Amino acid sequence: MWFLLPVLGLIIGTYLGSNITFQLPPIYIKYMSIAVLASLDSVFGGIKAILEDTFDGTILLSGFFTNALLAALLAYLGDRLGVDLYYAAVFAFGIRIFQNLAAIRHHSLTKYRQRKARIRGERNG
Amino acid sequence: MRKFILPLTIVCIISSFFLAFQLKIQTKNTNFDAVSQKNANLINVIQNLETEIENQENQIETMRNQLNEIQNQNNKGKLQDLQQEIIHAKIEAGLTAVNGKGIIITLDDNKEGLNTAPNDDPNKYIIHYEHILNLVNELKIGGAEAISVNGQRLVTTSEIRCVGNLILINMTRIAPPFEIQAIGSPKLMAESISLGQLDLLKAAHYPVTLEEKEDLIIPAYKGELQFKHTIPQ
Questions:
Q1: Which of A36, B67, B215, B216 has its CA at 20 to 30 Å from residue B184's CA atom?
Q2: Is the CB of B19 less than 8 angstroms away from the CB of A42?
Q3: Are the Cβ atoms of B5 and A5 closer than 8 angstroms?
Q4: Within-domain flag for A102
Q5: ipTM
Q6: Which helix (DSSP H) or strand (DSSP E) does residue B129 occupy?
Q7: Residue B147 pairs with which residues in a beta bridge?
Q8: Number of compact structural domains in chain A
Q9: What value, to the nearest 5°, has the Cα angle with vertex A66 and ends A62 and A71?
Q10: A55: domain range?
Q11: Structural domain boundaries enclosing B46
Q12: pLDDT tens-place string over residues A26-51
């Protein structure tokens, strides 16, 4: 039953996000997209940490907020300076998402193979 | 419950919220235009103000009717003369609806001309405020006693002004097709405008019509004439 809570969270968040009537000023859409990337990165990072048994809720949440803030700050600074520092954040988050996804894949595959091997071993034994 | 459920749930809520919100924005405004959004807000403001103006105009009208009733109730002796004077003054000021014989001029943008020459300057094919202003001036030369444009009675304070692609009369936006009604001698007024702006418009192939009417009703000025700085001598 424990895994249902994050799923419920996903549903609640989607519902809230699609039903909100708040009009975002168009200049902030850029910041919004960075926030999306930061949060996606955190989700994958969290799943990876669970699989690696190194999960720490405080680290996950603090990482999420500092990452999002730093990214927004970079984008803002980039806007001020006329340099698209925004892409640096997108780039970093994109790479991290891929890395986390790769790690998740590795872990799940190894676990799956281990279990298969164990079952086979039990059968043989 | 395992230790990672709560933080993961929070992160899930936030990330799916952001995702859904961002998706909604992107699908709604694929070609996002900052100017158009600003305009939408402005249009809203204008529409609200216009309904407010309409409400207040209606209020003025009802108040004026009440005032008229009260004034008509006790008309004895000396008061009667004063009443007559007030009624005359009101007619002259354009604060009452009037009827009589006159003419109706209708004019519209030259859409056909613009369609046949789509690359030409559209300014050559639309009715400008100057056209209406000239027509009104010529009607006045022709002895018009009461004039209205699209139902807006022209009084001493009325303006005919260009506001982008619309015309402002009595602070009310007016769009084509235009209908100018004027009470007065139909023959004189028709002559006056036929030698001027009306013929120019016809020559430029604008769809213009001139119609003489035996009985024409011209509405009252809906606003209020305010004289804050004028002192009678």
A1: B67
A2: no
A3: yes
A4: yes
A5: 0.75
A6: helix B129-141
A7: B182
A8: 1
A9: 150
A10: 25-124
A11: 35-72
A12: 777 778 888 888 888 888 888 888 88
